[in-house]
Amino acid sequence: MDHRCRRGRFCANREEVDGVIVGRAIPAEYGFCDTCARHVEQAVQALPQDYVQLNAILGGGSTVGGEPVRMTKDLPVPIRLHIEALQRSMVEEADAWAGSLARVLNVDWHPHGGTRPGWRLTRACRLIGNSLSAFLALRDEKHIIWEYGHRYVAPRDGLDGALNFLSLSYKARLFLGQTKLVHHLPVPCPRCDAMDLVREDGSELIECRDCNRTYSWTEYERLCLILVDREEKGLNVA
Ligand SMILES: [Zn+2]
Ligand SMILES: [Zn+2]
Q1: In the predicted model, is pLDDT for residue 87 greater than 80?
Q2: Domain range spanning residue 102?
Q3: How many A from CA of 196 to the centre of ligand 2?
Q4: 192 in the same domain as 109
Q5: Nearest ligand to the C-alpha of residue 212?
Q6: Rounded to whole angstroms, how far apart are CA atoms 121 and 49?
Q7: What confidence tier does 112 reach under pLDDT thresholds 50, 70, 90?
Q8: Ligand index nearest the alpha carbon of residue 215
Q9: What is the per-residue pLDDT across 128-140, written as a single tens digit (0 to 9) for each?
Q10: Highest mean pLDDT among 26-30, 76-80, 191-195
């Protein structure tokens, strides 16, 4: 049995094996493929900014952060509650993992009570983002979980945490309206080889989410032709 990227069918380099979509096969010592590990890193680094932007759409009267807000547009109550719950989850999750990480790395970490959540989140995400491989390597950490009004202690791995960060980041993007319909191209990026080319609905541009390069259709076609050409020449020489 192959060891595969923990992101499973959502893996950026997912493949089909016997009709089932699975994560890319990777060495046993890794939890994610390179691309997905980079996505985790990007999600963790962007979380504090997501939090601030969510504050902005909450407008006045946020009960979560008590932080300065810019917009005053009234949101329907259910959406407001969902956003506040999402913000709380961001802070709790980052706090929990930063605490575990600090213990393993033996760095000073005292999240004092009474500090602003946004500040705690920024601090926690910085620690996690700066020590991503140590975070992903965490095993069997005991965290206090709140679920449906119940509190219990659950053993969790850094990889569970990473999947949670991806999901928190995705949810933030949904609320912030940044999740657009994208088409995934079933071909690798001509420059970095990652299977991560997307085109937003209605857009002329193709973007590689791995190396962040963008291509126009013509440019993309030209690069593909060059690659094919080169491969054919390589074959002819051999
Ligand atoms: Zn992956
Ligand atoms: Zn690329």
Answers
A1: yes
A2: 34-175
A3: 7
A4: no
A5: 2
A6: 10
A7: low
A8: 2
A9: 999 999 999 999 9
A10: 26-30
Looking at 37-176, which runs of residues are DSSP E strands? Answer: 141-147, 150-156
* 122 CA to centre of ligand 1 in angstroms: 26
Token pair of 214, please?
């963008």
* Residues by chain with Cβ below 5 Å of ion ligand 2: 189, 191-192, 208, 210-211
Question: What is the whole-number distance in angstroms between the Cα of residue 195 and the centre of ligand 2?
Answer: 8
Could you give the CA distance from residue 139 to residue 137 in angstroms, rounded to a whole number? Answer: 6
Q: Indicate whether 20 belongs to any domain.
A: no
- The 3-state secondary structure of 176-189, one letter per residue: CCCCCCEEECCCCC
CA distance 217 to 207: 10
Residue 89 domain-assigned?
A: yes
Which has the closest alpha carbon to 126: 46, 18, 52? 46
Assess whether pLDDT exceeds 70 at residue 231: no
> Residue 15: in which H helix or E strand, if any?
strand 15-17
DSSP state of 23: P
Q: Please tell me whether residues 170 and 199 are part of one structural domain.
A: no
Side chain identity, residue 43: A
CA of 13 to the centre of ligand 2 (A): 12
d(CA 25, ligand 1 centre) in Å: 9
- The reply to whether 155 and 93 lie within a common domain is yes
CA 39 to ligand 2 centroid distance, Å: 14
Number of structural domains (the chain) is 2
Give yes or no: residues 53 and 118 share one domain. yes
Q: Is 102 part of any domain?
A: yes
pLDDT above 50: residue 72 = no
Ligand number nearest CA of 194 is 2
Same domain, residue pair 52 and 118: yes
Looking at the domain assignment, is residue 25 inside a domain? Answer: no
